[in-house]
UniProtKB/TrEMBL annotation, chain A:
It comes from the Bacteria. Pfam families: PaaA_PaaC. One of its GO terms (cellular component) is cytosol. One of its GO terms (biological process) is phenylacetate catabolic process. Gene3D superfamilies: 1.20.1260.10. It comes from Jiangella alkaliphila. InterPro entries: Aromatic_CoA_ox/epox, Ferritin-like, Ferritin-like_SF, PaaA, PaaA_PaaC. This is Ring-1,2-phenylacetyl-CoA epoxidase subunit PaaA. NCBIfam families: PA_CoA_Oxy1.
TrEMBL record, chain B:
One of its GO terms (biological process) is phenylacetate catabolic process. It comes from Jiangella alkaliphila. Coiled coil: none annotated. This is Ring-1,2-phenylacetyl-CoA epoxidase subunit PaaC. It comes from the Bacteria. GO terms for cellular component: cytosol. Pfam families: PaaA_PaaC. SUPFAM superfamilies: Ferritin-like.
Length: 321, 247
């Protein structure tokens, strides 16, 4: 009993002094489980997130844009790899985590269940979705778990680059023909609220996140700001950018509040968010099906790689004997 | 004439990049999503440089996008091999091995071109292609010498692409004239080193060289398979819907 208390005290001493917990350090089991879930779902989001943008690689309207998009989707696969590696330091395997994704026992970001219907959606994803992701993730570069914090430093750098590219792509559209500008506005109309919903349920009220996840995560130094604080930060950052683009945010309630020093805005439809998270969004079935198909179709390739590696090892052993 | 040469090299890279891009988010492993996107990106880079150069040589003001998006399949000069559908992973890797081994020998020699631009492009591309060839080699070994199933598929994949290899070594009036000037590489000279490399990989994988079949050719003259029309319809659709737009 005393030993457990001592170990827990050592853990909190590190967390409270803004230090980093490393894979070999003692940590409460609930902390470990929460981190596995959060990092895995973050990794899954990178992997599923390749699909909506990947949808436009073959149709990108210039070779330059095609190259930018390919590089971006490649980065996302790389981010997934970093994050699975970070999760593996907590004692799970990538295969186990993918199995949890494929059997709907772990989730990925709600945003990727929306379809990319036009080219402008690719720019809107870069600007809004990556913008929201960065707002969420920059505080994680200081989170208490070292491997996760370090992965986020790398990922945030690349995400910021993608976000600027997305903005620039939309800017080109809004400076272009009437049809291009309309395409950009339509994309903003469809992606605005799903992007706001990325920050999760509100902090208070009937729809607040159940079970005090936020409070516990804050105590552990995993989360530093509440969902609503981050959502507000995102709105405050994004509104001036929409003005530069000359696009209208689809919220008649949006206005600067001098007293608060923030924009007031209409909250997203959280019922819709909950529906999408539960699996009933426009593309949930399609996204998961695609991922599971890729996994199943590739099984023989992975088996071959395993069999070949085993043969090679046996040959080396034989040669050495 | 140099523009036609650059165009053929650029079209090879462009069409294969388009095919490899189709794999993204459906590869057997995340590492392969990264690798295939990476190779596609290298090829797209080569295509952009070659098409831009072809446009400059032509002197009609066509840039890389005009050449990529506003030519029909009868004007594309890529070899038939690169437009073949991806099939399963073994077909894709067979196509990659055949093509990367060819491109490696080509760019290795093109570094000595008397055309400074072509020599410079080749100097950069040869490093990329060396990696592509290694990637394909490793997979042909793993699949050929992996499980019974992977071996069966690798044999089938090689048989699918093999008839399209010969076209890579075809010369025409363009390559004949330009290689006499030291600008281009005579493709026929690549057959021997290509054969030595590819047969070495097949031998190590315990695979037999596929039986010779009637070679398929025509791409360099704009006579393609039925696959290219669909590939271009998809690739060009958005660009052509907004003819005056910049992106």
């Amino acid at each position: 009993m005393a030993a457990t208390d001592e170990r827990e005290a050592a853990f909190y001493a590190i967390v409270d002094s803004d230090g980093r917990i490393e894979p070999r350090d003692d940590m409460p089991e609930a902390y470990r489980k929460t981190l596995i879930r959060q990092i895995a779902q973050h990794a899954h989001s990178e992997i599923i997130g390749m699909q909506p943008e990947g949808n436009w690689i073959s149709r990108a309207p210039s070779l330059r844009r095609k190259a930018i998009l390919l590089a971006k989707v490649q980065d996302e696969a790389g981010h997934g790899l970093y994050l699975y590696a970070a999760a593996e330091t907590l004692g799970v395997s990538r295969d186990q985590l993918l199995e949890l994704l494929h059997t709907k026992r772990q989730k990925y970001s709600s945003i990727f269940n929306y379809p990319t219907l036009t080219w402008a959606d690719v720019g809107a994803i870069g600007w809004l979705v990556d913008g929201a992701a960065i707002t969420n993730q920059v505080p994680l570069t200081r989170c208490s778990y070292g491997p996760y914090a370090r992965a986020m430093v790398r990922i945030c750098k690349e995400e910021s680059f993608h976000q600027r590219q997305g903005f620039e792509s939309l800017l080109t559209l809004t400076r272009g023909s009437a049809a291009q500008k309309a395409m950009a506005q339509d994309a903003l109309d469809r992606w605005w609220y799903p992007s706001l919903a990325m920050f999760g349920p509100p902090d208070t009220g009937e729809q607040a996140a159940p079970g005090g996840h936020t409070e516990q995560s804050m105590r552990w130094g995993i989360k530093r700001f509440s969902n609503d604080e981050l959502r507000q930060r995102f709105v405050d950052m994004t509104v001036p950018q929409s003005e530069v683009l000359g696009l209208t945010i689809p919220d008649p309630g949006l206005r600067w509040n001098e007293e608060r020093g923030h924009y007031d805005f209409t909250a997203p439809d959280y019922d819709e968010l909950f529906r999408v998270i539960k699996g009933d969004g426009p593309c949930n079935e399609q996204r998961l099906r695609h991922r599971v198909d890729a996994q199943n179709d590739g099984a023989w390739v992975r088996e071959a790689a395993g069999a070949y590696a085993a043969k090679q090892q046996a040959r080396r052993r034989e040669a050495a004997a | 004439m140099r523009d036609r040469y650059a165009l053929a090299l650029g079209d090879d890279a462009l069409v294969l990049a388009q095919r490899l891009g189709e794999w993204v988010a459906r590869a057997p492993e995340l590492e392969e999503d990264v690798a295939l996107a990476n190779i596609a990106l290298d090829l797209l880079g080569q295509a952009r440089t070659m098409l831009t150069y072809a446009g400059e040589l032509e002197g009609t003001g066509r840039d890389e996008d005009a050449l990529a998006y506003w030519r029909d399949d009868r004007d594309f000069r890529n070899a038939l091999l690169v437009e073949l559908p991806n099939g399963d992973f073994a077909v894709t890797m067979a196509r990659q091995l055949v093509f990367a081994a060819y491109q490696y020998e080509l760019y290795d020699r093109l570094r000595a071109s008397t055309d400074d631009t072509l020599a410079a492009v080749a100097g950069k591309a040869v490093k990329e292609v060396h990696y592509h060839r290694d990637h394909a080699t490793q997979w042909v070994l793993r699949l050929g010498d992996g499980t019974d199933e992977s071996r069966r598929r690798m044999v089938a994949g090689l048989a699918t692409v093999w008839p399209y290899a010969e076209e890579l070594f075809d010369g025409d009036d363009v390559t004949a004239a330009l290689s006499a000037e030291g600008v281009a590489v005579d493709p026929a000279t690549l057959r021997e080193p290509w054969t030595a490399y590819v047969e070495g990989v097949l031998a190590e994988a315990g695979l037999e060289r596929p039986a010779d079949a009637a070679p398929r050719r025509g791409g360099r003259r704009g006579l393609h398979t039925e696959h290219l029309g669909y590939l271009l319809a998809e690739m060009q659709h958005l660009h052509r819907s907004h003819p005056e737009a910049t992106w």
